Amino acid sequence: MIQELDSASSPGGRMGGLLAALALGLGVAGFLIATGVELPASRPDDASRGAEASSGVANGTAEAQRYTEIVPSSMGKNAARAASVEPAALGGVTPNELMARYGSAAPTPGERGAALVGRSMRRAYAGAPPVVPHAIDQLGTSACVVCHSNGMKVGDVVAPAMSHGLLASCTQCHVEERGAPPVGGMTATQIRGLLAESGFEGQAEPGEGSRAWQGAPPTIPHSTWMRQACISCHGGESEAGLSSSHPWRASCTQCHAPSATLDQAPIPATPLPAGQ
Amino acid sequence: MTIDSKPLNAFPALPEMDRREVVRFAALTAATGLAGSLAASASAQQTDAPPRPEAPEIDGVEWNKAPCRFCGTGCHVMVGVKGNKVVAIAGDREADVNKGLLCVKGYHVGSILYGADRLTEPMLRKNGKLEKISWEEAVDIAARKVMDAGQGFGLYLSGQSTIPEGYIGQKLMKAGLSNNHIDANARLCMASAVTGFISTYGVDEPASCFDDLENCDVLILWGNNPAEMHPVLWSRVIDRVARGEKVKIIDIGTRRTRTTEHADMHLSMQANGDLAIANAILHILVKEGKVNEEFVSKHCSFRASHNAEGLSHPLVHDEFTARLAERGAGGLKGTAIDRKDFEELIDYYTPERCSEMSEVPVEQLRELAALFADPTLRITSLWCMGVNQHTAGTAMNNMIHNVHLISGHWGRPGDGPQSLTGQPSACGTVREVGTLAHALPGGRLVANDGHRADCEARWNVPAGRIASKPGYHTVKMFEQFSKPTSEGGDISAVWVQVTNPGQSLPNTKKLINGVKAQSDKFLIVSEVYPTATTELADLVLPAAMWVEKDGVVGNSERRTQQWFRMVDPPGQARDDAWQLIAVSRRLFELGHAGLRDKDGNWLFQQLDENGQEIEIWKWDVWKANHFDRNFFEEYRPFTVLKHKNVAPYDLLVEKRGMRWPVVETSPGEYRETRWRFVEEDDPFVGEGARFAFYHSTSGDDRAQIWFRPWEPSQETCEDEFPLMMSTGRVLEHWHTGTMTRRVPELARAMPGTYLEMNRKDAADRGISNGEMVRVVTKRGSMKLPVWLGGRAEPRRGHVFVPFFDEAQPINELTLDAIDPYSKQPDYKKSAVRVERLADPKGGTQ
Amino acid sequence: MPVSGLVLLLHPDQPLSPLLDALERHPDLMIAEPVERRVPLVADTRDAQHDKEVWGWLRARPEVLDVAVALIHDDSRNA
Fold first, then answer.
1. Known active-site residue B422
2. What is the ipTM of this complex?
3. Cβ of C39 under 8 Å from any chain B Cβ?
4. What is the Cα–Cα distance from B368 to B348, expressed in whole angstroms?
C-alpha cells in the first residue's frame, strides 16, 4: 500500500493518498494494538479471535458446547486467547491474581455468622434501615454522602456504600444509635430506666440463598427493595463475612436471581398455559 | 428442651449486655431455621439425602397493607406477621403517598405493640392504687358513672381514633345521651385550620392534594419543619431537587431547622411576624397592580369581622381595628366589605412597617411578593402547627389563603395553599365525623335546626334528641373538669380514648393535674401504655392498638384508608370501639332512655341476614367478626351533604386509600378527586364554571379574602421573661412519645428533651452546651439540659423545647390562651426566662 | 471460643431417648425443639480443640446420621 501512495503524482491525489494512508494506518494500528499482536503478525492457524476482521471470520471458531456438556467441560481460555491476550489487557493482573487480591473463598460460616450478628445489632429487623453507629452532622446530608456514596474502607473500618440510590434526606430514615442531644446529666442506667423495654422480635436476616445444584449461583435470599446496590454489602470493600468471592463482576443480577418468597414485588404470577 | 433466651433486638448495643448471649441466640435461631427448612425440603423430596448446605430460612411471614400509625402524611406500610406477631415492616410500593419509602418512625412502627409495660387488664383505682378488675365490672362502673354524671360527662376522643370509633362515640353522645360535651385532641392542633377553611371557602379541608409536591415551582413553608415532621412529603420535594429540577424553597419561621438547610431563602421572623409578612405581600400585590383581576373579580369576595359603615374614607387602619376590638371577634361568616375598603386598610401594611413588625428585611418581603406576582409560577404553601397553634390562628390561616387567592395562585397542580395535618385521622375522624362539641357528622352543626333534624332522621331518634347548644371545647372541658365542683366545675366525669391530655394539654397543672386529688371527679382512660393521663385515671381500660384491630382513617390529603386486624391484642386489651359499644349496651340495659331509638331498639343494634340481633357487645362476637364495615357504611351517607363523599368500604379494602369526594361514574366504577372546586377535577363543579366554591359563605360560589390585622402575641417578652419559648416535635418521637419511647432504636436516638437556644443568647448568659438550666414561666419552672448547635437553632430571643418527654413535660409551662374562633391554644409563644442553676435570677439579660 | 449452631439428622431406626438424655446432660450443648428427625442445638465451646472434640462426639453417636452447620461464631479469630 505504501508503494501505491508513492506512485501518486498529483498534489491533490498525493494529499488524498496521504490521508487515506493515515486513516488506514491508524485503523490497522488500532486494530493491531487492540489485539495485542506485534507487527508483522504471525498468526496461528486457530483464528478464533476473529483476527481476519477485514476479510470476514469464517473458519477456526470454537464449537459451542451443549448445556449438558458445560458442567463437565473446562471453560477456560482456548489456546489462542491464552497466547494472544497479554496480562496488560487486564491492568497487569491475571485472573488468579485478582482472585488472590480481591476475592476469597466464599466466607466461612463463622465469618458469615459474625457479619450477620453485626448487621442485626443495628437493625430492628431484616430490611430495617440501620441506625448510625457514629455521630453525625445534625443538619445536612452532604457529610453522609462523602463516605457512603461510593463506600470506603480505612483499616478495618468499613463505611458501606449506600445500598439504595441517592435520596436527599438521609436522617429521615437513619437515626443515630446513640442520640446527640444532651441528657441532662443522667447516667446510662437512668436513661435505660426511663426507656421502657420492648419485646419486639424482628424478622431475622435470612441465611444463604438457595442453589439449584452445588456450585450454582445462589438466589438472593432477601428483598432487593432499598438493597439494589449489591456491592454495598457484598463488594470487595465490605465486611469479610458477606463479601463476594468475585466482587469485580459488576452485573450481579446477571447470575443471581431475586427471591420468590421474600421479594415483595406486587407482580401477580400468572400460570403458564397448560401443555407447555 | 427449649432455651429461654432474650429477644435479639432488645437493647442490642448497650455495653452491659452479654454479647455471647446474643451470639448463642443467633446460633440457635440459625439452627432452628435450618432444621425447619431441611425437614420441609426433605419431606418434599421424600428422601434421606444429606441436607443441601444452602437452603434459605423458612419464611412463613405474611404481608398485609396498613396505613402507618403515626402522622398525617398517611404512608402505607406492608406489615410482616409471623406467629401472630409483627416481625417486619416494609414501605408499600403500591402506595401513592410514599411509593415504598418510609421515615424512621414508620420503619419501626411494628415495634410499638411490644413495649414491656403494655396495659393488659382493666384497672380501678382503690385507695390510690390501680387494681385489676374484670371487664364486666369495668363496663358496669363506666356505664354507671356516665349515667350519674348526666350533662356533667365529657367524651374526649382523638385524631388517632379511627372513623368507626369516632362515629360510635359521636352517635352515643349526640344521638344517645343528648350531650354535646364531646371533643377531640385535634382541637389542639387543627382547629384553626378548620375555621380558616370554613371562613374562607365555607367548607373544611384542603382543596388540593400531595400531587402538588411534584408539580410546584416554589414551595413556601410557613412556620413548619417538614424535614422532621412530614419527612416523606419533604422527600418528595427534595428528591426532585436532587434529580436536578428547579424548585425554589422558602422557609419562614423563628428557627433555622433541618428544613432550612435545603431552603433557598429563610425569612427569620419575630413572634406573630407571619401576620405582617402576609399583609406585606397583599399590600405589594395591590400597590403594584399584581392582583389577579380575573380570578378575584369572578371568584372572590372581601370580608372582615365587621364592616366599615359610618367610617370615613380612606379608612384609617387603627380606627378600623379599634372597631374590631370593640365589637369582638364575631363569627366565621363575618361581614362583606368592598374591595375598596380592603385596599384602603391594606395600605397601612407597607413593607417597611411590616419589616419592623416581623423583623424580616424589606428585600425579602419584596422577593416573596414578587413570586406571588408572577402568574407563571406554581406556588405551593405548606403549613402546620406554627400557624395553627396561634392565638390568631384562624386569621393566619385566612392570610395564607388570601395571598394565594388574590394572586390567583390557586387550583392548578402545584399551585395553591395546602394545610398539613399532624395526626393520622384528624381529618378522617375529628373533622369529617365531627367529633367536636359543636359538630355533627359530615360538616353539620348542632346549632343548625335543619342539620339536627336531618341527623335525627338518619339515626332514627325522636325529634329533639340532639341538643342544640354546643358543648365544651377541649380547654373548657378540662378547665371545668379540673375545677372543684364547689367552684362551678360542672364536668364530673371524663372518658379519654387514644390520646394523652395529661401531657399534651397546655398549662397542664391548671387544666388537668388537679383532678387526681378530687374524689368526686372520675376519669376513665382507654390506653395501651401507662401515661401521664393514666397516672390521673380512676378507671383504666386496656386498648387494642393499630393492627390489633380493624380501622379506617383519613389523612391530610382527604385520603380515606383502611386496614384489617392482623395480630391479637395482648391479655385483656380490647378495641376502643368495642369499649364504647359495651358501655352503650350497659347503659341500654340500665334503662337509659337515650340508648333507645324511635322504635325502642338499641341505638347500635346490628342485625344479621335473618333479621336477628348480633350481640356485638360481647367481646367474642365482636372479635370473631368485622363490624368496622357496618359502622363505616352507616356513616358514609352523612358525608354527601357537604360533598365529602367517602369511598365505599369494600373499595377502600382493595385500594391504598381514595381521596374524597369519591363519585360513582358508572355502576361499580369510582373516581377520586384530587383538586376540589376546579372544573377539571371536581365532579360537583358545573361545566364552564372553571372554579366554583360551592359552599361559599356568601352563597355566590365565591371564596372570601379576609382583612386580618396584625396583632401582638398574647404573651410578650418583658423584663422578667425576656425570651419567647416555642414547643414542638422531633423526628424520632411522635407527640407525647408513649409509643415511640418504647421503641429502642427511636428512644436511644432521642432519649430525652432539651432546651434549644441561640448560641449567642447562651454565650451572653455564660451557658455552655449540655449545661442544666432552669426554664421559668409564669406557670412554673423546669430543669432542662441545653443543646447548642444541634439540629436547629432558634433566632435571638427565642428558645425551643420538644414536648415528647414524659419526665420533663414542658406543657406544664405553656400558655393556655386560645384563638377566639377555633379555641385552639398557642403552644408556640410562652414568655420564659432561662437561669443557670448555679446562679438563679442571673438570667435577666 | 467458637459458638456453633448445628442440626443433627437422626437415624430413623435407632431409639432416640439415650441420645436425647446424653444431649441434655452434656455441659456444652443447648438443645431446641426438634423438627421431625432434625435436632437444632447450640454448642458453646472453649476453643477450637474443644469444638473439634464435641463435633467428633456428636458424629460418633450411632443415632446421628449427619451433622449440618447453620452458623459458627468464633470470637478468637477477630482482632
1. yes
2. 0.88
3. yes
4. 18
